[in-house]
Design brief:
Helix 6 runs parallel beside helix 11. The protein is α/β, with parallel strands linked by helices. The protein has 15 helices and 14 strands. Strand 3 and strand 4 form a beta hairpin. The chain is globular, with a radius of gyration of 21 Å. The strands form three sheets. Strands 1-2-6-9-10-12-13-14 form an eight-stranded parallel beta barrel, surrounded by five helices.
């Protein structure tokens, strides 16, 4: 199975041994961040630093001034990695080590954008804004994300791209000093907390036959038992319909699916238009349930495989997890890349990678993605190398 490891430019820039070390893992490709959200990252092997603090979402290359001139929504430049174009420097070193390079592009996840342009953010049924979550139904947001996708995806030397957060982002978010786990929310309640009530979405609901004020009140009412500590056993889409009522729930999903699909179609088309060759590969980080939100955007499997070249699917966990995410895509064609966490301290399981990869292959996966070579410990990477030596081919 072809394998690719996720890395950041700061894992490579300033470390003359990084590219060879990655190649020695047995991967054929590296998925290298070109546009990424804020993070604090450990760099356990870098000769010059141990922690990198990416203070805000940014591009890791110099954006094209002509593309963004006069636009209110535009990408932010990074300042925490040396050099004018750390992406290009890292990509060059990786290619010189014999590795293919894909860009890794994070789209609808940008806290600085929401802080500086609050009108772009998702607004929940209580009126709270989620500055980390741009509303993808807004024309201005979608136009920004589509142009960002095209520019950040098609960097010199890249043979493909992997688009993360190409859809709705919602309530769940790994935020600094997060204090949101005091009340447990199942995925049905997460959906209700992720419904957007910005002016564009209110108009969208009206077009689907819903009164936005009545809908917001219904959402608040459905969530009241959760806040009261009574919880809910509702899960899955049937759980959402149970909490909100089937007609209301289905109407919200029609609107949100329409908005997400438009972004996905336009982003993929823009990337392909900008790509230097017709075989430039475009994959989306995805979840097969279109109502889900986050880095792995909810999609309809048939639609997304007719739009993009394939998907990267979250496969860390037990057999049931892989069956749930790979099953809906099986037999539909396209690239199915099984994404495994390989950082033990972040919930990954490099020790079981060989067995887990074989299970994913039996379910239709043809490629592996490994999260994250720059963050993993030495023992974790050694386990990865052993596993890849046995699952290659």
């Amino acid at each position: 199975m072809k394998a690719s490891a996720f890395v950041y430019p700061w894992d490579v820039v300033g470390d003359p041994d990084a590219a060879a070390r990655l190649a020695d893992l047995g991967v054929q490709q590296v998925t290298l961040a070109s546009a990424y959200h804020s993070t604090r990252a450990l760099t356990p092997r870098h000769p010059g630093h141990r922690i990198v603090t990416a203070e805000h979402a940014a591009v890791l290359y110099p954006p094209d001034p002509a593309r963004w001139e006069g636009r209110a929504l535009r990408p932010y430049r990074q300042s925490w990695t040396t050099g004018d174009d750390p992406y290009a420097e890292a990509a060059g070193a990786l290619a010189a080590a014999g590795l293919q390079v894909h860009t890794w592009v994070v789209l609808a996840h940008n806290s600085r954008l929401g802080a500086e342009h609050p009108e772009t953010s998702v607004v929940n049924a209580y009126g709270d804004r989620y500055p980390w979550a741009p509303c993808v139904a807004q024309d201005a947001v979608r136009a920004y994300l589509v142009d960002l996708a095209a520019e950040a995806a098609v960097r010199p030397g890249a043979s493909g791209t992997e688009l993360e957060s190409c859809g709705w982002y919602g309530f769940a978010h790994l935020h600094a000093h997060d204090k949101t786990s005091g009340v447990g929310l199942g995925d049905a309640a997460q959906y209700l907390m992720s419904l957007c009530f910005c002016p564009d979405c209110r108009a969208g609901y009206a077009g689907s036959g819903l009164d936005a004020e009545h809908l917001a009140a219904a959402v608040r009412g459905a969530l009241e038992p959760v806040w009261a500590g009574q919880g809910s056993d509702a899960s899955g889409w049937s759980g959402v319909r149970e909490l909100l009522g089937a007609e209301r729930a289905d109407a919200t999903r029609r609107w949100r699916d329409q908005a997400a699909r438009r972004l996905q179609e336009e982003a993929v088309a823009a990337v392909r238009s900008a790509a230097p060759a017709p075989d430039f590969q475009v994959l989306l980080h995805a979840d097969p349930a279109s109502y889900r939100t986050g880095a792995n955007a909810g999609v309809d499997p048939a639609h997304i495989l007719a739009t993009a070249d394939g998907v990267v699917l979250p496969c860390t966990g037990g057999d049931a997890v892989r069956e749930a995410v790979l099953g809906p895509f099986a037999g539909r064609g396209g690239v199915l890349a099984a994404n495994f966490g390989v950082v033990t301290g972040m919930g990954g399981s490099p020790a079981t990678l060989e067995r887990d990869a074989a299970h994913a292959r039996s379910l239709g996966a043809g490629e592996l993605r490994l999260y994250h070579a720059g963050l993993a410990s030495g023992p974790d990477l050694a386990a990865v190398a052993r596993a890849l030596s046995r699952v290659a081919g």
